[in-house]
Fold this sequence. Notes:
Oligomer: single chain
Largest sheet: none
CATH topology: Non-ribosomal Peptide Synthetase Peptidyl Carrier Protein, Chain A
InterPro entries: ACP-like_sf (IPR036736), PP-bd_ACP (IPR009081)
Radius of gyration: 12 Å
Strand content: under 5%
Number of helices: 3
Organism: Sinomonas terricola
Distance between the termini: 16 Å
Pfam families: PP-binding (PF00550)
Protein name: Phosphopantetheine-binding protein
Amino acid sequence: MEMIPEITLDGLRELMISRLSLDMEPEDIVPDMSLLQDLGLDSVDLLEVAIGIERTYKIKITQNDTAAFATLQSLYDFCREQGLATVK
């Protein structure tokens, strides 16, 4: 059985930086930073992040889950909730 990595803030930061080729360090992305306004991500970027999360953490993300992409913290909280739901 495939091991699914633990969902962490650092893991999400690294996923975003690698999938979007962002020229920044993980610690530059703070939990309450707006992904759209502060990081300047657009809908294509968010889709790319969603795909990365689905593949890495085996979490299903739908169009109804877009509010989760407001900040790094809201994305982390969403992923933790979904990750725990899939384990049960």
